[in-house]
From TrEMBL:
Recorded family membership: Belongs to the LDH2/MDH2 oxidoreductase family.
Residue segments, region Disordered: 295-362
Pfam family, one: Ldh_2
Keywords from the named record: Oxidoreductase
Residue stretches of biased makeup (Polar residues): 349-362
Composition skew (Basic and acidic residues), residue ranges: 311-320
Protein name listed in UniProt: L-sulfolactate dehydrogenase
SUPFAM superfamilies found in the cross-reference section: L-sulfolactate dehydrogenase-like
Gene (name only): comC
Length: 362
């Protein structure tokens, strides 16, 4: 991250909630969404944090996102359900899906919810964490707007098609993998464009299919899947999983709100939860998962520690429990948004209040 500004976490949650409420979002939904965005920033996932708040606000203003949706369960057979989210904020749709999986999974041992007519739901671990806390294994994926070319192609056929896997642990936090199946999150392309920085090599091609590190050229061209043909295969299958069970649109059928905030994207999500109590028991699974976590952490050369999946984000969140640094471009956008809505801007925390780790990152 380049130049940044330090803010207190409660103030950011309050401002984000107020911005959403000013666009007609009910208080509880606004708070939920704000917490999702701010936690992403605390964990260093700036592509899914408050960078997106101005986009959400504009989509709410223009109708691409429905502030007060009438969500409908179009199918409910016990352990399997389908939810039409009525163009809701993705966080609102996902909380309904999580609550449903928790209830039905406890009754049946496994539950799945396919969501259609939704939008961006933020970082996937925000949802898998809730399920892990209740002893559930989680599989979660989603469609997005069209930004990724399949391996060997140059057309934007796929989305970033995130995959979140979560397993409860007897340790301090769950074992979690939360990743885009593109080489990087599209929000990081937007962040690089806003910051005037370059992308890592191997992330994107321009409109002619030539490798590029220029975020502007990447936005006009395509991102590419991680892992060559294998990653591309995973991305294609996740697209099918997220959209084919309902009337959700594939990425290549979608107009992204990044391009047109008035677009109702009709994103599809698929959430699957397995209640470990129905198998070997929650305590058994949590202990076994912790064993794997610790074995991974202890596998470094010369006794040097290795980070297990999910560790980097959790450690950063601990360091930023009270304050978090935002890219200056994001801070400026938040200030402009607050001024436009007549809200009190959040004041930066003096640099002297930053922790040593925060000052280093700044």
């Amino acid at each position: 991250m380049s130049a940044s500004t330090l803010f207190d976490v409660p103030g950011l949650v309050r401002l984000a909630s107020q911005v959403l409420a000013a666009h007609g979002v009910p208080e509880a939904d606004a708070l939920l969404t704000a917490r999702s965005l701010v936690q992403a920033d605390q964990r260093g996932i700036y592509s899914h944090g408050l960078l997106r708040l101005p986009l959400y606000a504009e989509a709410l203003r223009l109708g691409g996102i429905n502030a007060a949706p009438s969500m409908t369960w179009t199918r409910d057979t016990g352990s399997v359900a389908a939810l039409d989210a009525d163009a809701a904020l993705g966080q609102v749709a996902m909380q309904a899906a999580v609550d449903h999986v928790l209830e039905r999974g406890a009754a049946h041992g496994i539950a799945a919810v396919a969501v259609s007519n939704s939008s961006h739901y933020g970082a996937g671990a925000f949802w898998s964490d809730q399920l892990a806390a209740a002893g559930f294994l989680t599989v979660l994926t989603s469609t997005t707007g069209p930004v990724v070319a399949p391996h060997g192609g140059i057309e934007k056929v796929l989305g970033t098609n995130p995959l979140t896997l979560g397993a409860p642990s007897a340790g301090e936090w769950p074992l979690t993998a939360d990743l885009a199946t593109s080489s990087g999150a599209y929000g990081k392309v937007i962040a690089a464009r806003n910051e005037g920085t370059q992308l890592p090599e191997g992330w994107a091609v321009d409109s002619e299919g030539r490798p590029t590190t220029d975020p502007v050229a990447a936005a006009e061209g395509s991102m590419i899947p991680f892992g060559g043909h294998k990653g591309s295969a995973v991305a294609v299958l996740l697209e099918a999983f997220a959209a084919s069970l309902t009337d959700a649109t594939y990425a290549f059928e979608t107009v992204d709100i990044w391009s047109n905030p008035a677009s109702r994207m009709n994103n599809g999500h698929l959430l699957i939860g397995l209640d470990t109590a129905a198998f070997g028991g929650r305590e058994h699974t949590q202990t076994r998962v912790q064993t794997l976590q610790e074995r991974v952490r202890g596998s470094g050369p010369g006794g040097r520690p290795v980070l297990a999946p999910g560790d980097p984000e959790r450690l950063r969140e601990q360091e930023h429990a009270a304050t978090v640094s935002l890219p200056t471009s994001t801070a400026d956008q938040l200030a402009e948004l607050a001024a436009r809505l007549g809200l009190d801007p959040i004041q930066p925390v003096p640099t002297s209040a930053a922790t040593s780790s925060e000052r280093t990152q700044r």
